[in-house]
Specification:
420 residues, Aspartate Aminotransferase, domain 2, three-stranded antiparallel beta sheet, 13% strand, globular
Length: 420
């Protein structure tokens, strides 16, 4: 056993001593749940702690320990865990006989759609239940509208656990591979990968395949790939190229929507996509997602176009409680935008620099990404990366990969180095 293994073993032992309830529940879960749970990212060794209560910034685990939570429900809870403004609205709704599944349309769906149009734009809106589904439907709409099959996405980008884009998410000496078994090679061959914040790479891809690309889907603020903002130049290049080649530009705002302002981050860049998708914050802690955009594309899932795209909804689409939580959240954020977002940005900056300082004092070089840029000044997100070399600036998912960290430098150029 080497020193690293001994350290990990010692840390695991100390963790289980501090969190005995987690260890007992981990053993119990193994007899009924695959891998101990139903969401891989939430499971970690030697055992994830299990919460009993969550309020504001804190969660309390099964051993009664209070834990400061920067994760906040996959960055969903912009107002913290169980904020009274939302829980009180839900309580009143349930008491009044509104909130559980009815399978019948209600007027709140119209009210919420109108509110979203004011805050994020989009000529038409349809609700669904998850960001993954929202992105899947947006891509289906784009392919039907253009009558093309190729999908362009970011290498290292994550558009949810849906089959159309499960390629090139994790780094394995590159991104050109399927993320899962069970998908056909033909399906994966129809997914092209672009480098984030590399306009020259994007131009080359469109020169080669532009007339065949149905859509370019990307996050204007990268999430899972490392928490980094798109450069203005990159998004402008994406807009120009997609317009020139007749490609549908899709902004995945699952994370960035309502994170930096009471609406989409695309408005801060001044760039309008044909379609955009929202989830997380927009659902107020409930399972709700949104696809919105140009009417001529969105109508392909409607009766006037013969429902060419099967975006018909599932049992829980526009669920009453999700609509109520989402409407309440968006209405509150819109009414208090000038108070909320500057303060969140201040706290985000304090968190990022504080984390780096703690590691620096221990002699460990790290970078906490998530800083704002010239168009997004106030950022309340962050992701820790280590080990890193001094002077490294992360602007693309390739820079985050452990195998790429020591060759991914950007000191003066706004574009990732060729071949990275």
């Amino acid at each position: 056993m080497n020193d690293n293994d001994r350290l990990l073993e010692d840390l695991g032992r100390r963790y289980l001593e501090a969190y005995p309830h987690a260890g007992r529940e981990w053993d119990r879960a193994a007899d009924s749940l695959i891998g101990g749970g139903s969401h891989t990212l939430r499971l970690f060794s030697p055992a994830p702690f299990r919460i009993g209560e969550s309020r504001g910034a804190l969660v309390t685990d099964g051993d009664g320990q209070e834990i400061l939570d920067f994760w906040q429900g996959h960055y969903t809870n912009i107002l913290g865990h169980n904020p009274p403004v939302i829980t009180e609205a839900l309580t009143k709704g349930f008491e009044a006989g509104y909130g559980l599944q009815s399978g019948i349309v209600d007027s709140l769906q119209i009210d919420f759609a109108e509110l979203l149009q004011r805050q994020i734009g989009g000529e038409r809106i349809r609700f669904t239940t998850s960001g993954a589904l929202a992105n899947q439907y947006a891509i289906m709409l784009a392919r039907a509208f253009t009558n093309r099959s190729l999908i362009l996405k970011i290498g290292g980008g994550w558009q949810g656990a849906q089959a159309l884009t499960l390629k090139g998410v994790s780094f394995r000496d590159g991104y050109d591979h399927a993320e899962t078994e069970g998908l056909s090679q033909d399906m994966m061959d129809r997914v092209l990968l672009a480098r984030y914040n590399d306009p020259a790479n994007l131009e080359e891809l469109f020169r080669q395949h532009g007339d065949e690309i149905a859509c370019f889907i990307l996050e204007p603020w990268m999430g899972m790939g490392g928490f980094m903002a798109a450069t203005v130049e990159y998004l402008r290049t994406a807009r120009e190229l997609t317009s020139h080649y007749g490609t549908v530009l899709i902004f995945d705002e699952i994370i960035s929507g309502f994170r930096f302002r009471a609406g989409g981050v695309h408005t801060l860049y001044g760039i309008e996509p044909e379609l955009s998708t929202y989830a997380k914050i927009v659902g107020g802690g409930m399972p709700l997602a949104v696809v919105c955009g140009r009417e001529e594309i969105m109508r392909l899932c409607g009766p006037e176009a013969g429902r060419r795209v099967k975006f018909d909804g599932g049992t829980f689409s526009a669920h009453p409680a999700a609509l109520l939580a989402g409407f309440t959240t968006v209405e509150y954020l819109a009414a208090h935008e000038d108070e909320i977002y500057p303060e969140l940005g201040r706290l985000g900056e304090k968190m990022r620099r504080g984390v780096e300082e703690v590691f620096s004092r221990a002699g460990i070089p790290v970078i906490c990404t998530g800083d704002g840029n010239e168009v997004v000044p106030d950022s309340s997100v962050g992701m820790l990366h280590f080990p890193v070399d001094e002077g490294l600036e992360i602007i693309s998912p390739e820079h985050v990969s452990r195998r790429a960290l020591h060759r991914a430098y950007r000191r003066t150029s706004a574009v990732a180095p060729p071949g990275v």
